[in-house]
Design brief:
Chain lengths: ~220, ~220
């Protein structure tokens, strides 16, 4: 598996039968590929529906049905459409079980920065700020470093998306859980040592007594 | 009362400097013909309130490319590079708002509320200049209601009275904006006789709609 596949497959294991899940654009979207067929997970699309299905065949595109990135998608049987206020009742109101997002930076206090780089890139926060505040569980899925530079920091220096809302970080190197004491390393890709993971991480990792190996097959 | 107007009649109410809510989400549900008509009309110094900045060639992004927008209030502008360009040159004042906050501000505007309290944005730059209120141990931002002079709505099926049905994900901000502007103009993909939309299926009741234009 490539790096993204390792991450997406591991994130999928955090989802449970009956969950309502919002996947961010990009890598998080790949998580849908790893959900067991017998598991009932409902995907929410913040532009206004639940029951998000896969992309349509090229000859079956309906531009009245798009995802939050404006790309044509499908809706599964049992789907429901609603307006943006209801969409964020679901999101902010605590009715989303899991949200999976990418990040530019995260830190050991559970802070997330993923919506702007001042002077360079200002795409806007879209629904991300509401998602991380409202979802019951916030999972960050991302490559462990950016071109060798640490992204898991002691303190984010980019503008925050939300303060202290992250529950879990999943990268190709490790799985980390946010606790009151800090960031706990709970699983490690067997291709790396704990020292190597710590060296690629600016935040100080607390090593779990029950450190497990990530499934990378 | 005849609410059905020609495109020209409806657009004649839009003037320089007005605030306009534009329905749609990445151009899905945006009345595209209204965008083209406004580009042709050339009205300028507009304040646009919308979910996003559209695409350079689709949705309200066309108005930005044509430099008709003075101020944009939106949650996401990443798919229209012209927004960033004009922010850098100072031609466009862009206020980025969390999407759920924007939806609630518009809903509040149409509902006679002064604003809403939301936990979204606490601890971020979004809280700058806003009142923070602690309720039962949790911190909230006071976000004021938003209203506009005009709302441009995209409807899939509209009856001659102005009842609107939105197909699939075209709904998004449209029903909210229909409540929050002085003049609400619906671009109807299809106009039908009164009674042809079952009352159970009406998503925006006709009383919110001022003009209907077939698009």
């Amino acid at each position: 598996m490539n790096v993204k596949e390792i991450i997406a497959k591991r994130v999928a294991k955090e989802l449970h039968d009956g969950d309502v899940v919002n996947l961010g654009i990009g890598l998080p979207t790949m998580v849908a590929n790893y959900i067991p067929a017998d598991m009932d997970v409902t995907f929410q699309s913040e532009n206004g529906f639940v029951g998000l299905g896969p992309a349509p065949e090229a000859d079956n595109v309906d531009m009245d049905l798009v995802n939050a990135g404006g790309q044509p998608v499908t809706a599964i049987p049992g789907a429901a459409f609603f307006d943006s206020a209801v969409s964020f009742s679901i999101i902010r109101g605590g009715h989303v079980d899991v949200t999976v997002l990418g990040a530019l930076q995260v830190d050991e206090k559970g802070n997330l920065a993923n919506w702007m780089i001042p002077g360079k890139m200002v795409p806007g926060m879209g629904g991300a700020m509401d998602l991380v505040v409202g979802a019951k569980k916030v999972i960050i899925s991302m490559t462990h470093t950016a071109k060798g530079k640490a992204k898991i920091l002691k303190e984010c220096n980019l503008p925050l998306t939300a303060a202290g809302q992250i529950n879990m970080i999943i990268t190709e190197m490790a799985v980390m859980e946010q606790t009151d004491k800090g960031l706990v390393l709970t699983e490690i890709n067997p291709e790396y040592t704990v020292e190597e993971v710590q060296a690629a991480t600016e935040a100080t990792l607390i090593i779990s007594d029950d450190l497990k190996k990530m499934d990378i097959a | 009362m005849n609410k059905i107007k020609t495109l020209e009649e409806a657009m004649s109410h839009i003037e320089d400097g007005m605030s306009i809510m534009i329905g749609g989400f990445m151009a899905c549900g945006t009345p595209e013909k209204f965008m083209d008509a406004l580009v042709e009309k050339g009205v300028k110094d507009l304040t646009i309130i919308a979910n996003d900045g559209g695409f350079p060639d689709r949705g309200l992004g066309k108005l930005i490319v044509n430099k008709q927008v003075k101020r944009l209030v939106a949650s996401h502008v990443g798919l229209n590079p012209e927004v960033g360009n004009q922010m850098n040159t100072g031609e466009l004042d862009c206020e980025l708002v969390p999407q759920g906050t924007l939806a609630e501000q518009i809903r509040a505007g149409g509902n006679g509320l002064g604003g809403i309290l939301t936990p979204t944005g606490v601890g971020t730059v979004v809280e700058d200049g806003k009142e923070k209120i602690e309720l039962d141990g949790k911190m909230y931002l006071l976000e004021k209601a938003i209203k506009a002079d005009i709302a441009l709505i995209g409807g899939s099926i509209v009856d001659k009275k102005g009842n609107v049905y939105y197909n699939k994900s075209t709904k998004n901000f449209n029903p909210l904006m229909a409540t929050a502007a002085d003049l609400v103009i619906v671009g109807a993909e299809k106009i039908v006789e009164v009674g042809e939309i079952n009352a159970n299926d009406v998503m925006t009741p006709a009383l919110f709609v001022d003009y209907i234009v077939e698009v």
